[in-house]
Specification:
Strand content: 15-25%
CATH class of the largest domain: Alpha Beta
Largest sheet: 5 strands, parallel
Oligomer: single chain
Structural class: alpha/beta
Number of helices: 8
Radius of gyration: 18 Å
Helix content: 40-55%
Strand order of the largest sheet: 2-1-3-4-5
Mean pLDDT: 88
Low-confidence stretches: none
Number of strands: 13
CATH topology of the largest domain: Rossmann fold
Distance between the termini: 32 Å
CATH architecture of the largest domain: 3-Layer(aba) Sandwich
Length: about 230
């Protein structure tokens, strides 16, 4: 069975949010609805989403800020903004933080569906994904079961090892921001959490050294990069 595309939908208008949620579910998508930007970011950090639909004007955290944080953790997940405004500045701000497209309210359900399908086709990458599993070099990694399959045997990762490797694996050969990673996994980017994260990175390096084509690099002043040669 083909895996449903999972969508994070952040919309603070209860009626519109429920309408979009119901419609997209009926079209075969797996949709998680949240009603403010803070909850959107929390859900993104907890789950693996294939697509994000963000209302620009939301309480707690606006859509632009949410998208900026998401882009520091994931360079590729498609982001579609919903806005009641049509000002050029809003669109420029959205594209500046990595939005893939904009939809101005009011819009038809058919137009939303067409945009999702078009963006998904345009942003599709050569897959390193096998169902819910990921390839890391020559290793198979299952984030849901926290299992890493190595030539020497299976390894059950700790929760934080799993979260870190998930971020790195989904952004292979891309730099993931150190501070954003700390906020996403530890909830705070303070010094002590930073030291803790360095310990977990060292553990992952030790596990992955069985494949000489894999390297987790420190990028000074920025973060980490999982290089697969």
């Amino acid at each position: 069975m083909e895996k449903k595309l999972s969508i994070l939908l952040a919309e603070d208008d209860d009626n519109l949010g429920l309408l979009l949620h119901t419609y997209l579910n009926s079209k075969g998508y797996d949709v998680k609805l949240v009603r403010n930007g803070k909850l959107a970011l929390e859900q993104f950090n907890l789950s693996n989403f294939d697509f994000c639909i963000l209302d620009v004007m939301m309480p707690e955290l606006d859509g632009i800020s949410v998208a900026k944080e998401i882009r520091e953790l994931n360079k590729h997940v498609p982001i579609l903004f919903l806005t009641a405004k049509a000002q050029q500045e809003d669109k420029l701000a959205g594209f500046a933080v990595g939005a893939d497209d904009y939809l101005t309210k009011p819009f038809s359900m058919e137009e939303l569906l067409a945009r999702i399908e078009a963006i998904s086709r345009r942003t599709a990458k050569p897959t390193q994904v096998l169902g819910d599993q990921l390839m890391v070099g020559s290793f198979l990694f299952d984030p849901h079961s926290r299992m890493l399959y190595l030539p020497s045997g299976e390894v059950k990762l700790t929760t934080k090892e799993n979260q870190l490797l998930s971020l790195l694996a989904k952004n292979q050969n891309e730099i993931i921001d150190r501070q954003a990673t700390l906020r996403a996994i530890w909830g705070d980017d303070n010094y002590f959490n930073g030291r803790s994260m360095d310990v977990y990175i060292a553990k992952l390096r030790k596990l992955l050294k069985e494949d000489g084509s894999i390297e987790i690099m420190n990028v000074h002043g920025k973060g980490f990069q999982l290089i697969v040669k």
